[in-house]
Structure formats: structure tokens, C-alpha cells
């Protein structure tokens, strides 16, 4: 499979999962680094996916440790596995934190 074909299919699967509660990539692992430089991972729910901007959206409480970790260090990794497609995705990038009501 060509890389471009794989990339297009992967982003399409992410978009589907943002809409479909049963989507294979609906639940993703968000990996951050805490203040002690220890890796932290937790499950988040994919709310939106904009493949043209390569952007994923998920919600979290501003009081949560993950919010504090992302505010201090915006470098994250997102890991997902879709059982139906037998496909694992590992995405690295930067987060932008928005306050409640934004």
C-alpha cells in the first residue's frame, strides 16, 4: 500500500470515529509527560477530527492533571487501535489548551 493511500485511510477512520460512538478509534490513549518527567497515559474520547488541518479534538477538565501536564509541555503522543481494521495509529504532535466555554 502506498503511504499516501494509508494516510488518507487512517484520517478517514479517525473522522468516522469522531462521529460514530462505535468507531474503532473513538477511544484513544493520550500520552503526556508530568512535572517529574514521567510518562503518563490515559484514555480520551475523540470528539472531532479535521483531517485537512491534521487536528484531533477531545475534552478534559481544566482541573485534571492531564490539563496541567499539557499546559506545561504541549508535546503529546496519541495512540489508537482499531480492532475492525486491525490498524494501530501513533500520532505525535502539539496540543493547544482552550479554557471552558471557548
| Side-by-side strand order of the widest sheet | 2-1-5-6
Q: What kind of assembly state do the chains in view correspond to?
A: single chain
Number of strands: 6
CA-based shape: globular
Rg measurement, Å: 14 Å
Question: What is the helix content?
Answer: 10-25%
Mean pLDDT: 93
**Which spans of ≥5 residues are poorly predicted at pLDDT below 50?**
none
What letter string, H or E per element, gives the SSE order? HEEEEHEE
User: Span between N and C termini?
Assistant: 40 Å
Largest sheet: 4 strands, antiparallel
What's the helix count? 2
What portion of the residues fall into strands of 2 or more residues? Answer: 35-45%
Helix/strand structural class: alpha+beta
Task: Offer a few descriptive terms.
single chain, 102 residues, alpha+beta, 4-stranded antiparallel sheet, 2 helices
Task: Please characterize this protein's 3D structure.
This protein has about 100 residues and is α+β, with helices and mostly antiparallel strands. The protein is built from 2 helices and 6 strands, in the order αββββαββ. The protein has helices spanning about 5-20, 65-70, and strands at about 25-35, 40-45, 50, 55, 75-80, 85-95. The strands form 2 sheets. It has a 4-stranded antiparallel β-sheet. It starts with a helix and ends in an 8-residue tail after the last strand.
Amino acid at each position: 500500500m502506498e503511504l499516501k493511500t494509508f494516510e488518507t485511510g487512517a484520517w478517514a477512520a479517525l473522522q468516522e470515529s469522531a462521529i460514530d460512538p462505535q468507531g474503532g478509534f473513538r477511544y484513544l490513549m493520550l500520552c503526556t509527560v508530568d512535572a517529574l518527567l514521567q510518562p503518563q497515559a490515559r484514555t480520551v474520547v475523540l470528539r472531532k477530527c479535521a483531517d485537512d488541518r491534521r487536528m484531533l479534538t477531545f475534552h478534559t477538565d481544566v482541573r485534571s492533571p492531564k490539563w496541567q501536564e499539557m499546559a506545561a509541555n504541549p508535546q503529546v503522543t496519541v495512540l489508537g487501535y482499531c480492532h475492525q481494521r486491525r490498524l494501530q495509529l501513533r500520532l505525535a504532535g502539539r496540543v493547544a489548551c482552550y479554557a471552558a466555554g471557548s
